[in-house]
Amino acid sequence: MSNLKIGTIQNLMVKKKKTEGFIVTDGSQEVMLPNDQASEDIELDKEAQVFLYHDKKGNLLATMTMPEVDTETYGWVEVVEVVKNLGVFVDIGIEKEMLVSIDDLPLLESVWPKVGDWLFVSLEVDKKGRLLAKPITEGEVQGDLEPAPASLLKKDITGRIYRSTKAGSFLLTEEGYRGFIHPTERKEEPRVGETVTGRVIDVKEDGSINVSLRPLKQEGMKEDADLILEYLIERGGSIPFHDKSDADDIRKTFRISKSAFKRAIGKLMKEGKVIQQNGKTILTDTMNQ
């Protein structure tokens, strides 16, 4: 019985040479190794290490180019194409690009990976016999977690988003740390596969970290104040928001927390740029016209 399964690395005997390539075998099944997929040191009647995959026509092929990942390992691979209603294709280091199915991507296309983003995947054969790239699961991350040291608190850290949920975004760092970004700690939801840099705001007992993509309060206050000013100007100098407004309404409109909104409004009022009146925030320039 043959053990030639797609997505695996095998040591096969080089049986014979043909015009289009070499025939390699495990003794019971033969596979074509195309000329452009064979290395220069290949020899007849010697073993060759190959990776097995299907070409676009569904034919089983071998390549001596080793992929970044296989069915037994995980690795970071680059997104090279995004196809609506299908998924994204990633470069695993061989001639054929692998599909990450729409079923393994977020429901919101706005947080799908873009070309140039990186996904942490393994390979998997689906029920139709197709070799697909499969993003890492939460259970697999937990099983291989590198605990972050307490000294990381308040330090900047860079990682890639590997999962996006309503609860927040999850990231992995080069060091192997697992991080979580709560929706209140970001202005925009990062894409799966996006590389982000944030500040560690908590190191948990299990070694995972909480990360904020928001600037420090003083820096953030200026950014938020500028955002509110721009919003005021676009709407004629008056908006139906004040320090007693609903927190959800504030977040939906400005993508900041109510406390951040109040700090920014306080800054603008202190600078004499706005006043609050009758449940509205109003530009002082507008009042003087």
UniProtKB/TrEMBL annotation:
PROSITE patterns (UniProt xref): S1
Q: Which SMART domains match?
A: S1
Where are the bilayer-spanning segments?
Answer: none
Q: S1 motif domain location, by residue?
A: 154-214
Q: Mind telling me which Pfam families this protein's record contains?
A: CvfB_1st, CvfB_2nd, S1_2, WHD_CvfB
Q: What does the similarity note say?
A: Belongs to the CvfB family.
What's the protein name? S1 motif domain-containing protein
Gene that this sequence comes from? yitL
